[in-house]
Amino acid sequence: MRKINExxxxxxxxGFHAGTPAIFIRFSGCNLKCNFCDTQHESGELMxxxxxxxxxxxxxxxxxxxxxxxxxxxxxxxxxxxxxQAGKIVCIETNGxxxxxxxxxxxxCSPKQDxxxxxxxxxxxxxxxxxxxxxxxxxLPAQHHYLQPCxxxxxxxxxxxxxxxxxxxxxxxxxxxxHIQ
Length: 181
Fold this sequence. Notes:
The structure is a single chain. With 181 residues, this protein is α/β, with parallel strands linked by helices. The protein is built from four helices and nine strands, in the order E-E-E-H-E-H-E-E-E-E-H-E-H. It is 17% helix and 27% strand. A nine-stranded mixed sheet has the order 3-1-2-4-5-6-7-8-9. Strand 8 (144-149), helix 3 (155-164) and strand 9 form a beta-alpha-beta unit. It starts with a strand and ends with a helix.
């Protein structure tokens, strides 16, 4: 059984896959308590893998995004294998503080200040920028490095930082800007 906050179908709003139709599986709970977290992920219901797979089968996309909270609290190799057997491309959005199955297709690491990143494989780094020193995150082993305004509130500050530090790219929460889930 896995504790699920919600399952929904929308467009990915952030990072490399922004604009891509995807099925979101939002897991409940997190091992960190970030003061800027904009997701209500504490509640949820226990669902079997069969029920999760049956729910996502009703959506036409082949991309599944495991998110939360922190999805690494609830996933394992068997779950990822079942998603792959269902023909899904499996992406995860994780804070990087816990290990994840190696068979995940795309890893987005969103590191948090003062929390050690344990992952040694990731495809993109996406940092919510609140004015902190983000230079250590450029050393993480990812091909893409994104800075994201905190709930679209400090966009000018983020743009100015990226213009001065061009190894970063801008990630906007486009789902919030166009008012979709």
